Amino acid sequence: MKKKIFISLALVCCFGAAYAWFADINGKWTANLQTPDGNSFQLNYNLKSDGTALTGTVESPQGSIDITKGVVKGDSLTFSVDVGGTEVLNSGKYFAQGDSIGLGIDYQGMKFHTTLKRAADK
Fold it and tell me: Do 82 and 69 contact (CB within 8 A), yes or no?
């Protein structure tokens, strides 16, 4: 009986620690996206996780876009944004040690990769 209680308590603690660890995704992030023609532009992400749900916005030179279909599982995240009627899929991984997110972007079959860094508070 004591063993079951200990295991249950350990699992609850692990879940709490994992949630607290990944909760660090909340906040403002920046990235530079390199295009195939050699141009680059800055993207600003405002991310908010609530359990496994991920919401927020992405700001580009063209304006702000809401994040949809956002999911957080462990250190992985996925979400979509609508760019001019086209769904752009984003998937990535949070790296706590570097406080960064490696993000893959799929725009109509074209694959891009960028690294999000936490934005400094102004």
Answer: no
Structure confidence at residue 104 (pLDDT): 97
Other CB atoms within 10 Å distance of the CB of residue 45? 23
Q: What is the pLDDT of residues 41-90, one digit of tens each?
A: 999 999 999 999 999 999 999 899 999 999 999 999 999 999 999 999 99
State residue 13's pLDDT score: 42
Class of domain 2-118: mainly beta
| Structure tokens belonging to residue 33 | 């996206």
Measured in whole angstroms, how far is the alpha carbon of residue 60 from the centre of its chain?
A: 16
Q: For the purposes of burial, counting CB atoms within 10 Å of the CB of 86, is it exposed (0-12), middle (13-18) or buried (19 or more)?
A: exposed
Backbone angles phi, psi at 25, to 5 degrees: -70, -20
What are the domain boundaries of the chain? 2-118
Give CA–CA dist 55/67, Å, rounded: 6
What is the spatial distance between Cα 49 and Cα 70, in angstroms, rounded to a whole number?
9
> What is the widest separation between alpha-carbon atoms in the chain?
65
